[in-house]
Amino acid sequence: RPKVTLSTLRKLSKSDTPITVLTAYDYPTALLSESCGVDMTLVGDSLSQVCLGHDSTTQITLEEIIHHAKAVTRGSKTPFVFADLPFGSFEVSLEEGVRNVIKLIKESGVDGVKIEGGVEIIPLVRKLSEIGIPVMPHLGLQPQRATSLSGYLVQGRTAQSAYEIYQTASEMKDAGAFGLLLEAIPHNVAKKITDDLDIITIGIGAGNGTNGQVLVITDVLGTYSQEDIVGDDAKESTLVETPNQLQQASELTLPTPKKPSASPRFVRQFGSIGMASKYAINQYVQAVKDRSFPDTKESYNMKKDEWDGFLT
Ligand code: KIV
Ligand code: NA
């Protein structure tokens, strides 16, 4: 597959082919998107919770984003890779925002950036677009503002707030943004923005009328889930474990990773990696404890005369 470019993404949206987007935080997660034909890979600031154990995205630093983005770009030959501007890296001044984006691009090699905000980020979106950096503003629910919003709440449900999102979307397009990320807004608002404006829309919790969809990779894989695959549709897919193995996995005493929050409506778990991982680690611990690992085929031999020579 050739590298996904802005032109590829525009062709996909013009031909009504949904664009697939997944987050990645390191080399192995980047390789999953690479090998499964995912179109875009996002180094999301969800890194803060799902990889570094913080309870909010506001704690992540630009340096940490860069460190992880470097590993992601090493594992991404094909997808269009973009990274979140973390909280605190662009609000102080236009100049600081531009400088930080240039630093992020130079050091990590990502193709573009995503920025949470409303009309106040338009000067930054315009400047970055003018100097040739692809920008995707993130509208609707903005997790970096969860505290001031009093939680992770659906946005754009009133006529007034839907209009504000629509208007901001239009201004972002005029400022040169190549795309929009629309999070947790009514599906018909997201579809109207997609239909009316000549800009690529990627949705999460925004219905299926957008040009593409994004999910957090750990939600898709069920990395932190204590359950087997959830959701009526997913139940039909192949289970990775036998009931017996599931039972053993559920008896584990490994520490449970912090789940960032109760799953929002828009999450669908497509796998049960958390269960599979615990099962594997439990088997390893048991095998070491009962000395069944390593067995002779997993150990190195020595010729008998060499051994005898060694002993004398
Ligand atoms: O940080 C993130 O993972 C994101 C996506 C959920 C859109 O911003
Ligand atoms: Na984010």
TrEMBL record:
Spell out the residue ranges making up region: Disordered.
243-263
Where is it localised?
Mitochondrion
Transmembrane portions of the chain: none
From what superkingdom does this record's organism come? Answer: Eukaryota
Q: Where is the composition biased (Polar residues)?
A: 243-253
The job of this chain, per UniProt, is described as: Catalyzes the reversible reaction in which hydroxymethyl group from 5,10-methylenetetrahydrofolate is transferred onto alpha-ketoisovalerate to form ketopantoate.
What protein does this entry describe? 3-methyl-2-oxobutanoate hydroxymethyltransferase
Q: What is the lineage of its organism?
A: Eukaryota, Fungi, Dikarya, Basidiomycota, Agaricomycotina
